[in-house]
Design a protein that fits this description.
This protein is of the alpha/beta class. It has three domains: about 150 residues, Rossmann fold (3-Layer(aba) Sandwich); about 70 residues, Helicase, Ruva Protein, domain 3, CATH 1.10.8; about 90 residues, Orthogonal Bundle (Chromosomal Replication Initiator Protein Dnaa, Chain: A). It contains 16 helices and five strands. It has a five-stranded parallel sheet, with helices on both faces. Helix 14 crosses helix 15 and helix 15 packs across helix 16. The longest helix is centred in the middle third of the chain and has 17 residues. The relative contact order is 0.09. It binds adenosine-5'-diphosphate and magnesium ion. The site of magnesium ion has 3 residues, from helix 2. The site of magnesium ion (MG) has 3 residues, from helix 2.
């Protein structure tokens, strides 16, 4: 169970100026896992720029070249959860042992470990063991090590031992080749001027770029119409507008969950863990404040809750922000993020 996605291959990871260094470092690592000075290899960059894809590609390629090696991909969030469960069940040693016998360990979104001292601690020991034994560690993060907060110094210094390679926003040429490749793989024919129009206007990240092309294809097949430049204009306009952060409930959930470094799934989950409940209540509060949606509709979009739960959430947030200084700071910070 390596958890690797074979579609996230090097072949499908188009090269451009924005990713050349990270991509070739990845190739070097997969040619000689544990045998280069890129250990750990840390890939960092903003959302939707290909960190997860590249991390998988390295793992997939290693599995291909060295089938006998054990390669494990895991998100830092899952790793944390597993560790918490292991501690609860008194299995801390088994947990450590499991990770210490892996040949190639890939941990995605390590920024999630910030503030989680227990998990950082155990990861520190696992890391040291792997490194000393010539095993390869690959990490991704939304920030460079120097900008990471609430990560222990000794762990940060380990992160800097190898190579930190950034994924930047792709330029126009790269955006065009990514689109062409995607269309080719999906067997869709699209006039060149439309591909260029989309690539020219969607500049934020690859995920958005792919999203725009997918919705363009969907619209045209749904309406049984050809893909025209006019249709492309409409779709692109929608995407550009959305990224100008028209506040939607989705966007609010994204901002709130990013702020607390959790997944949207976690935010919506049924758990009663205090920090998750608070994050959810904040999302509901901001949805009430910044959208026209009804309490019922907010509830159904944020983890299928009823209108009374949303009402309660709004009151709780009001109360807490007048009594709890830390909580008030959350409200202020998130308000700022939602207002840019
Ligand atoms: P991140 O983890 O940085 O948020 P992902 O790895 O999830 O980003 O990438 C978002 C989407 O963009 C994925 O579908 C991925 O396959 C695609 N993608 C990113 N970079 C490239 C690239 N250089 N070539 C082809 N597809 C890419
Ligand atoms: Mg990712």
């Amino acid at each position: 169970e390596s958890q690797l996605n074979p579609n996230y291959s090097f072949e499908n990871f188009l090269e451009g100026d924005s990713n050349r260094l990270a991509r070739s470092a990845g190739l070097a690592v997969s040619a000689k896992p544990g045998g280069t000075s890129f250990n750990p290899l840390l890939i960092f960059g903003g959302v939707g720029l290909g960190k997860t894809h590249l991390a998988h590609a390295i793992g997939v390629d290693i599995k291909d070249k060295y089938p006998e090696k054990t390669v494990l991909y895991i998100s830092a969030e899952k790793f944390t959860q597993q560790y918490i469960d292991a501690v609860k069940k008194n299995n801390r040693n088994d947990f450590i042992h499991f990770y210490q016998i892996i040949d190639v360990l890939i941990i995605d979104d390590v920024q999630f470990l910030s503030g989680k001292t227990g998990t950082q601690d155990v990861f520190f020991h696992i890391f040291n063991h792997l490194h000393q034994n010539g095993k390869q560690v690959i990490l991704t993060s939304d920030k460079a090590p120097v900008d990471m907060q609430d990560i222990e110094q000794r762990l940060l210094s380990r992160f800097k031992w190898g190579l930190s390679a950034e994924l930047q926003t792709p330029d126009f040429e790269t955006r065009v080749s990514i689109l062409r490749n995607k269309l080719y793989r999906d067997g869709v024919d699209m006039p060149e001027d439309i591909i260029e129009y989309v690539a020219k206007n969607i500049k934020t990240n690859v995920r958005e770029l792919e999203g725009a092309i997918i919705s363009l294809i969907a619209q045209s097949s749904f309406n049984k119409k050809e893909i025209t430049i006019d249709l492309a204009r409409i779709i692109v306009e929608k995407f550009v507008k959305n990224t100008k952060r028209e506040v939607s409930i989705d966007y609010i959930q994204k901002v709130v969950s990013d702020y607390f470094q959790m997944d949207i799934d976690t935010l919506q989950s049924k758990t009663r863990k205090r920090h998750i409940v608070q994050a959810r209540q904040l999302a509901m509060f901001f949805a009430k404040k910044f959208t026209k949606a009804s309490l019922a509709s907010i509830g159904s979009q944020i983890g299928k809750r009823d209108h009374a739960t949303v009402l309660h959430a709004c009151k709780t947030v009001d109360n807490l922000s007048s009594t709890d200084k830390q909580f008030r700071k959350y409200v202020e910070d998130i308000t700022k993020k939602l207002s840019v």
